[in-house]
Amino acid sequence: xxxxxxxxxxxxxxxxxxGSMAAYRDQTVSGFNxxxxxxxxxxxxxxxxxxTLFDRPGNENEIEERFVARPIxxxxxxxxPANPYHPRGNTPxxxxxGVTVRACERLEGKYDRVLFVIQTDGDENxxxxxxxxxxxxxxxxxxxxxxxxxxxxxxxDAFSASVAMGVAAGSTMSYVSSHAExxxxxxxxxxxxxxxxRGATADSFFTTEPPPTSAPSGPGSATAKSKxxxxxxxxSSRKPNPHTDDRSHQ
Length: 250
Hints:
With 250 residues, the protein is of the alpha/beta class. The chain has a single domain, classed as von Willebrand factor, type A domain (Rossmann fold, 3-Layer(aba) Sandwich), CATH 3.40.50.410. 30% of the residues lie in helices and 20% in strands. It has helices spanning 25-41, 93-105, 132-144, 158-165, 180-196, 222-227; strands at residues 8-16, 46-55, 62-71, 113-120, 148-154, 172-175, 235-236. It has a 7-stranded mixed beta sheet, sandwiched between helices. Helix 1 (25-41) packs parallel to helix 5 (180-196). The chain starts with 7 loop residues before the first strand and ends in a 14-residue tail after the last strand.
């Protein structure tokens, strides 16, 4: 396709369910559900969603592919009996990404675009099957095929972590866990732009503005959508400058 509008989209989300997420569980659940509701209401294209939750509660990693390419309108809210969320354990981040990419590969011929969202609040510490180098090579290869990857990193140097895995700095968000709702809202705004036009790319999901349009500026217009992507408190899509910033992330 030459344009994102009117296509078939697969949104794949790797969602951190490790123990450190417990302190801000409610904010994460609320933010994810805001993202879900906004994408369910977005009229651009047909959308399917895959959701993978990852943790390591004991001696074995748990990579739960809870929903695989389910029509987005059929996805229940996070934190409900049909879609529970109970943080626990360590962080097999690389294994979760590898498993989810492989699952998407088996389906990618059915979709015009694949948007892959990685959310975590901590560093990789327990993967057994995938290494950082292997994930870097995998993400680099899929980006070359047109997949878009975004990284939402809480309470960490998100830009260093994302680039080390092959995700572009322009498609990276750094935020503090207490602002998870604002982070997911920003990700949803970017996703809506990506679904509607060429404005967001695999290299600049959070930084590329939509192309100029002669359409009127109204609530549903491209201009209005670009304004929805303004910076939010506690959320940054700007790579920090160590010479001017007090911290590595906001």
